[in-house]
Amino acid sequence: MQISQITRDTLDVTLLGKKPGHKYDHGHALVLSGGPGKTGAARMAARGALRIGAGAVTLGVPPAAQLEVAVQVTAIMLERIPDGAALADVLKDNRISALCLGPALGLGARAAGLVKAALAAPSVVLDADALTLMSQDAEICAGLHPRCILTPHMGEFARLAPDLAEAAKAERPSAKAWAAREAAARFGCVVLLKGPETVIATPEGHVRRHCATHDRATPWLATAGAGDVLAGFITGLLARGIDPLEAASMAAWLHAEAALTHGPGLIAEDLPDLLPQVLRALNVQAA
Ligand SMILES: NC(=O)C1=CN([C@@H]2O[C@H](COP(=O)(O)OP(=O)(O)OC[C@H]3O[C@@H](n4cnc5c(N)ncnc54)[C@H](OP(=O)(O)O)[C@@H]3O)[C@@H](O)[C@H]2O)[C@@H](O)CC1
Ligand SMILES: Nc1ncnc2c1ncn2[C@@H]1O[C@H](COP(=O)(O)OP(=O)(O)O)[C@@H](O)[C@H]1O
């Protein structure tokens, strides 16, 4: 199995530069929020999507959480999305170019309806609770497509594919990469399997690896919500029209780079606001 390492040298920095155009030319990302008291994860993901350059980002909230979210966002827009039918309606707006759902979404009927409706979006990041729901419902698995990206941590991966999670733990080189590749083939979409070693695989069998180890070690990324921000970074890049493998790879590198730039003491909500510094250091220019 061939595995490409994701490094500074493999990043196509030109993809991060913006061409002339208006905000919708840079994509509109939609991030779905959970209910009252559970909105922080989606708000962090949405901020990540906006900072990485999506032209517009909207948080889809259940009506009961609208006030809680409204008082905590400014550039991010808000839309009431009570259920799957409402999401299907919102997705008729073909300017919405990517959707993220799962962070603190919940596991009830609303969340299950949203996950099913979400698969109609052009590009979809399924994280956290969306993955747990997927592991319980074959209908969701059947609706996955190549512009979906699953972003499990090992706990979520064990629910999605217990056999592959077991194999990933084997004491052989590239066991985790092999498991991600099998999962991508099984589900017919991109799989980004998280951890200090993050592996990304496509249904066609491409495998990439980012190692946050040695000189890129960032153990302080093991902090609640860091994965929610990563999901937002990927969503923002997808919204901008970048292809799923490239979006996942760039997001993984930028996420670790932001953590390295900050150092110890990092909390998840710092990550989006570290991006301007990281992009400046990469010398990202207007395209
Ligand atoms: N600020 C917010 O609003 C935040 C909200 N959040 C939201 O909280 C919800 C619950 O999400 P969650 O990830 O904490 O819990 P869950 O899905 O039950 O899995 C956890 C279990 O899996 C296992 N496990 C194995 N390997 C693992 C690994 N590498 N990383 C992590 N776990 C690993 C481990 O079992 P163990 O290894 O301990 O036996 C562990 O007990 C979800 O909606 C999420 O979006 C969070 O994003 C945080 C910020
Ligand atoms: N020890 C570590 N070193 C480097 N990166 C880590 C480490 N632990 C976790 N990460 C990264 O931090 C993020 C954690 O995501 P996740 O487990 O989904 O947490 P949460 O659900 O709290 O957001 C992932 O991107 C993962 O790759």
From TrEMBL:
<keyword id="KW-0520">NAD</keyword>
<comment type="function">
    <text>Catalyzes the dehydration of the S-form of NAD(P)HX at the expense of ADP, which is converted to AMP. Together with NAD(P)HX epimerase, which catalyzes the epimerization of the S- and R-forms, the enzyme allows the repair of both epimers of NAD(P)HX, a damaged form of NAD(P)H that is a result of enzymatic or heat-dependent hydration.</text>
</comment>
<feature type="binding site">
    <location>
        <position position="153"/>
    </location>
    <ligand>
        <name>(6S)-NADPHX</name>
    </ligand>
</feature>
<dbReference type="InterPro" id="IPR000631">
    <property type="entry name" value="CARKD"/>
</dbReference>
<feature type="binding site">
    <location>
        <position position="227"/>
    </location>
    <ligand>
        <name>AMP</name>
    </ligand>
</feature>
<feature type="binding site">
    <location>
        <begin position="194"/>
        <end position="198"/>
    </location>
    <ligand>
        <name>AMP</name>
    </ligand>
</feature>
<dbReference type="InterPro" id="IPR017953">
    <property type="entry name" value="Carbohydrate_kinase_pred_CS"/>
</dbReference>
<dbReference type="Pfam" id="PF01256">
    <property type="entry name" value="Carb_kinase"/>
</dbReference>
<dbReference type="InterPro" id="IPR029056">
    <property type="entry name" value="Ribokinase-like"/>
</dbReference>
<keyword id="KW-0456">Lyase</keyword>
<feature type="binding site">
    <location>
        <position position="41"/>
    </location>
    <ligand>
        <name>(6S)-NADPHX</name>
    </ligand>
</feature>
<keyword id="KW-0547">Nucleotide-binding</keyword>
<comment type="subunit">
    <text>Homotetramer.</text>
</comment>
<feature type="binding site">
    <location>
        <position position="228"/>
    </location>
    <ligand>
        <name>(6S)-NADPHX</name>
    </ligand>
</feature>
<feature type="domain" description="YjeF C-terminal">
    <location>
        <begin position="6"/>
        <end position="282"/>
    </location>
</feature>
<keyword id="KW-0521">NADP</keyword>
<comment type="similarity">
    <text>Belongs to the NnrD/CARKD family.</text>
</comment>
<protein>
    <recommendedName>
        <fullName>ADP-dependent (S)-NAD(P)H-hydrate dehydratase</fullName>
        <ecNumber>4.2.1.136</ecNumber>
    </recommendedName>
</protein>
<keyword id="KW-0067">ATP-binding</keyword>
